[in-house]
Write a structure and sequence with these properties.
The protein is mainly alpha-helical. Helix content is about 75%, strand content about 0%.
Length: about 325
């Protein structure tokens, strides 16, 4: 069993154990059942595993970082519940979204409660680290909200620059990966230099991860991604694919949409490949991945980073 599988099993075992504890069996059940539901849907568990990996990189047992691992995963799933409501999404990880499975009000309130439980998990950390952990968590939580607002605002703006998009995905997605690593390092006694390098590694990996997600949304398959492929294109979301193609092919997207073709997505994807947009976006993804690996190299003499390096390569090569 490799390090990734071992830590995923360890985390999932701890999560499953938590489901049987009083905090998950409070009443009314309508408030807590949706939380158990979304946390039980699966997913890659990237954020909690990164927190555990950071602890091991500092020479500690992964268990020391469980409080922050649960905190970031609960926060992440809180954000997913609310994001799905804002996006009017019906499917998450191949299953009904929380607000579809229950109702809108239950989704909002259950998500709110899950955020509170994220702070509750964080409060179980050792007192000597709590202030620093809380500072990192709060800063990240605000940036994630800022990123979500930018993403929604972009829907109403025709001309989005690449830099604006990268700033948005940094906040919406990447900073939580960085925070997971930083908090895992802090709680295991990592130095400020190590903790910051791990944070930078996570942010750059997260940007590469999100660009990859955008590519998979367009070029993947529903079977592997659990999402409706091409949904971002049909929704005219300003991904890097959309931004680069629009800038270099003015008016082309409008003409394809105006054609009322039943194969709009396929036509756009073909044009993106022919125009070099697909290759350009892949290169940008690789650049941020390379930046992430440079951050690991800065601390490889004082930390055991081989597991993190292997994890990053798995993230880069994933097909889902």
């Amino acid at each position: 069993m490799n390090s990734l599988d071992r830590l995923r099993k360890f985390y999932l075992d701890s999560l499953e154990q938590g489901f049987s504890e009083p905090e998950w069996n409070r009443h009314p059940d309508e408030l807590y059942a949706p939380q158990r539901y979304i946390l039980g849907l699966g997913g890659k568990r990237i954020r909690p595993i990164l927190a555990l990996m950071a602890a091991e990189a500092n020479g500690c047992d992964a268990s020391i970082a469980l409080s922050v691992a649960h905190s970031v995963e609960r926060f992440h799933n809180f954000s997913l519940i609310h994001d799905d409501i804002m996006d009017k999404a019906k499917i998450r990880r191949g299953k009904k979204t929380v607000h579809e499975n229950w109702d809108l009000n239950t989704g909002i309130l259950s998500g709110d409660a899950l955020l509170v439980m994220a702070y509750k998990s964080l409060s179980q950390s050792p007192d000597k680290y709590f202030s620093e952990l809380l500072k990192s968590f709060n800063q990240t939580a605000l940036e994630v909200c800022e990123g979500q607002q930018m993403d929604m605002s972009f829907e109403k703006i025709d001309n989005i620059e690449e830099g604006q998009y990268l700033h948005m995905i940094r906040n919406k997605t990447a900073v939580l990966l960085g925070c997971s690593l930083e908090m895992g390092s802090i709680i295991s006694g990592g130095s400020k230099v190590v903790s910051r390098a791990l944070y930078n590694f996570g942010v750059e990996l997260g940007i590469s991860f999100q660009i990859h997600d955008d590519i998979l949304d367009a070029y993947g398959s529903t079977k592997t991604t659990g999402k409706n492929v091409g949904a971002d294109i049909l929704a005219k979301k300003k991904t890097l694919l959309w931004i680069h193609f629009s800038k270099n092919n003015p008016g082309k997207l409008d003409s394809i949409f105006d054609s009322q073709s039943i194969e709009i997505v396929q036509k756009i994807l073909s044009e993106m490949e022919l125009s070099g947009t697909f290759d350009y976006v892949q290169k940008r993804r690789r650049n941020h991945f390379d930046n992430a690996m440079k951050s690991l190299k800065e601390i490889e003499e004082v930390c055991e980073v081989s597991a993190l390096r292997n994890f990053a390569n798995w993230i880069f090569e994933r097909k889902f």
